[in-house]
Amino acid sequence: MNILITGGCGFIGSHLVRLILEKGHEVVNLDKLTYAGNLENLRDCEKNSGYRFVKGDISDQETVFPLVEDAELIINLAAETHVDRSLDSADVFLKTNLFGVYAICNAIKNSGKKIRLLQVSTDEVYGSIEHGVFKETDRFSPTSPYSASKAGAELMAFSFHHAHGLDVVSTRGANTYGPNQFPEKLIPFFATELFEGRKVPLYGDGKNVRDWLHVLDHARAIYEIAMKGESGKAYNIPGLNERQNIDVVRKILKSFGKGEESIQYVKDRAGHDRRYAVEGKRLESIFEFERVSFEKGLAETVAWYKNNEKWWRPLKKESEDFFKRHYSKLSSNER
Fold it and tell me: What is the pLDDT averaged over residues 6-28?
């Protein structure tokens, strides 16, 4: 199958590209190479005859249309994803996350071909839940420009399904972690801060709950949903590893032989959701798999960052202004 993956040089995208190539498909990877898109993530795939990279913006219809026409399946991972950045400025989130999906859907419609679109979304579209879990039929209640733009992207894709008959499915994955994640997300950021001898800045009281999903499990689930999912349906992808942020931090600190003295509590971010949790019964109806345990996945992830300093250090340097804005309460010797 000829598969177009957008955002394939990013964190989840690069693992998915590699998985799909291993399955024997041909992949065209369209990526704008913003701060989170990194060609190094797929350097090992460049000699694969089934792989082709195209640099471009998914909101540019002139770029998107010919790629869509050649595809049998499109998996859209191209997105701005960091909540903190969306709080700084939401413009690029709207352009990429919403208008980008429109460009893809419009290209599929105008092609006149039967092309499946899998829109990769997030559990954050539901908002926070104190108890229980969200089902795919529950209403959206996003609380950040990031999650609002992802909710809008899904609604846009499904509007083309209902109005024009496009074959659309979506995934709503839990908080994903693993190797190659851009070092401003919690686990890689804290690990690399500790490698650099700094304290780790923890928002609020640290008791916000996230469900942690290993990137390889996320990639496997996306692939199976793309192949077997029912058109017009969304599929939650839970990690089944709920943890308070403070507990995750303690595990990271323990792996470095450090204690709570290495935590620097900072002012909580605006609108910080307390807990995310989703049900996975719809996914289980088409695909059952044994997830990577959080303890194993976390240890392997920290070890990866320890062994790949040349990969993450330049990325952290490029994002220094971002870190300073969001963790400005830390003294200069701590940050």
Answer: 97
Q: Where are the domains of the chain?
A: 2-176+214-237
- Cα Rg of the chain, angstroms: 19
DSSP string, 246-285: HHHHHHHHHHTT--GGGEEEEPPPTT--SB--B--HHHHT
Q: d(Cα 183, Cα 190) in Å, to the nearest integer? A: 8
What residues have CB less than 8 Å from 244, skipping those under 6 apart? 206, 207, 208, 209
The model's pTM: 0.93
DSSP 134: B
Residues annotated as catalytic are 123-124, 146
Q: Could you give the 3-state DSSP secondary structure of residue 113?
A: coil
Give the number of other CB atoms < 10 A from CB of residue 62.
Answer: 10
Angstrom distance (rounded) from CA 42 to CA 45:
5
CA distances from residue 269 to 6, 88, 216, 221 in whole angstroms, order as listed: 30, 11, 29, 31
> What pLDDT digit, counting tens, does each position of 215-267 carry?
999 999 999 999 999 999 999 999 999 999 999 999 999 999 999 999 999 98
C-alpha 295/C-alpha 288 separation (Å) is 21
Residue 78: name the closest of 91, 52, 96 by CA: 96
Q: Which fold has domain 2-176+214-237?
A: Rossmann fold (3.40.50)
* pLDDT score of 188 more than 80: yes
pLDDT (tens digit, 9 = 90+) per residue, 22-64?
999 999 999 999 878 999 999 999 999 999 999 999 999 999 9
The H or E element spanning position 234 is strand 234-237
d(CA 218, CA 16): 9
> Which of 178, 201, 180 shows the shortest CA–CA distance to 263?
201
Q: For residue 310, with 0-12 CB atoms within 10 Å meaning exposed, 13-18 middle and 19 or more buried, which class applies?
A: exposed
**CB 269: neighbour CB atoms within 10 A?**
15
